[in-house]
């Protein structure tokens, strides 16, 4: 297969190539694991398809440098490669271990996040910069040093200082009783501001733990780290305001929440690429999935989940 800057216009060829690679790998997977090891078969075939896709991705990036592709061409090629990879991964995972509705709906949602992040990894705008989020241990050390210095400089008796420090340590023991991970799905810098982004496919009835974590992490970014930090939540679904967990996050004042089309609008604003239009023009799950897979999805009422 020839890698050119117009690969994004050759969806059929790309799908055929990835399916051929996957077919070769699937035979090896079936020989390695028996019929009963469906979980191992599905994990291995996914890994092999992903590796084949990564090889093409590396070639794409090299060719983009060697041939001075435009940013638009590079991103469109990466998007098309990723989408076609998803199609083939879904087909062969279903062959190895047939989807049921909960697993399939969750999987379609999971694939959305890394797909959207391509717009930030290969942005059209030249001033978008990814950055590594801080470790909570680093933030804690800086804050502890500041507070201890402040207490030690107070014009009070040493015994009172020791008592204040003891109370302070008790509070920290409560805060750090569990692991706090400041890393979210995406961190980028633009116009002198740091944006910390979490992607969600949708909000369910069991989101309490995740909601509490999001509120804690955003509170640390906004109130402790503070300097030009903004926290954004991109939700794939057009969530209604009757979701209590989502309403809690919206009311917090520390998260800016964008659902459905709003999320795509913000992605375009930040990266310079109209992802919503690209999806409308190119992502055709029902047409692009193999006829056998699509037929199984119709029989099992899974087609309704094929929506971005």
Your description of this structure?
By secondary structure, the protein is α/β, with parallel strands linked by helices. Helix content is 62%, strand content 8%. The chain has helices spanning 11-32, 38-66, 71-96, 101-121, 136-152, 158-175, 208-225, 244-251, 261-271, 275-282, 285-288, 291-299, and strands spanning 129-130, 186-190, 193-200, 229-235, 256-259. The chain has a 5-stranded mixed beta sheet, with helices on both faces. Helix 1 (11-32) packs parallel to helix 3 (71-96).
How would you describe the oligomerization state of the chains in this entry? single chain
What ranges have pLDDT less than 50 throughout 5 or more consecutive residues?
none
Q: Specify Rg, calculated over alpha carbons.
A: 24 Å
**Strands side by side in the biggest sheet:** 1-2-3-4-5
- Distance from N terminus to C terminus (CA atoms, Å) equals 29 Å
Residue-averaged pLDDT = 92
Q: What series of H and E elements makes up the topology?
A: HHHHEHHEEHEHEHHHH
Largest sheet: 5 strands, mixed
Give me the number of helical elements.
12
* Count of beta strands: 5
Helix and strand content put the structural class at alpha/beta
Measured by DSSP, the beta-strand proportion falls in 5-15%
The level of helicity is 55-70%
Shape: elongated
